[in-house]
Design brief:
Layout (H helix, E strand, L loop, with lengths): L3 E6 L7 H7 L14 E4 L4 E6 L1 H13 L5 E5 L13
Antiparallel strand pairs: 1-3, 1-4, 2-3
């Protein structure tokens, strides 16, 4: 899935993918199940999810409308690949 990453502040511990989707007001199908929920900084309650690009802005708007903070991003997720053959 091409998409973007958003970081959530969830002090109650690592959420399931379904819990993360509910937190940001999205359908679970809009989150990347292969990416899952990544503990960015679990001691600080920070977790990252990957969502479809068109869903990220809707998530931010839905949270803002509810007065919920703790969401950072939208972050890009570029592919990382070598630029050429290794040098000797």
């Amino acid at each position: 899935m091409d998409g973007v990453m958003i970081q959530l502040s969830l002090p109650d511990g690592k959420p399931t993918l379904a819990e993360a989707a509910a937190t940001v007001g999205l359908d679970i199908a809009e989150l990347d199940p292969e990416f899952g929920v990544i503990a960015t900084d679990p001691d600080a309650g920070l977790y990252t999810i990957k969502v479809q690009a068109d869903a990220a802005e809707r998530a931010r708007e839905a949270l803002a409308a509810r007065g919920v903070g703790g969401v950072e991003g939208i972050f890009s997720n570029p592919k990382i690949a070598p630029f050429g053959p290794p040098e000797d």
